[in-house]
Amino acid sequence: MPESGPGLEALDYQEYEALKAYIKFDGDLDAANAELSRDPTNTPAHRARALELFRHHSRYRG
């Protein structure tokens, strides 16, 4: 499995969890952030990085 290259982005665990939540909640950022806020290790910086990538996903509604 490739670790780097065109179109691939490296995410840490918390960024990946945030991205999964945005997809799980079908782009409902408020619901995803409510779930993510239950985990004190998932910071606004993690969510911002995930949102940056999620903006390119088909479920993004922004």
How would you describe what is shown here?
With 62 residues, the chain is an all-alpha fold. It has a domain at 13-54. Helices cover 50% and strands 0% of the residues. It has three helices and no strands. It has helices spanning 13-24, 29-36, 44-54. The longest helix has 12 residues, at 13-24. It starts with 12 loop residues before the first helix and ends in an 8-residue tail after the last helix. The mean pLDDT is 92.
What would you say about this model in short?
The chain has 62 residues and is mainly alpha-helical.
What secondary-structure arrangement, pairings included, does this model have?
Blueprint lengths: L12 H12 L4 H8 L7 H11 L8
Helix pairs in contact: 1-2, 1-3
Features:
62 residues; mainly alpha; 3 helices; 50% helix; globular
Major sheet: size, sense and barrel closure? none
pLDDT averaged over residues = 92
Low-confidence stretches: none
Distance between the termini: 31 Å
Number of strands: 0
Rg: 12 Å
Q: What best-fitting shape do the alpha-carbon axes yield?
A: globular
Alpha plus pi helix count: 3
Percentage beta strand: under 5%
Order of helices and strands: HHH
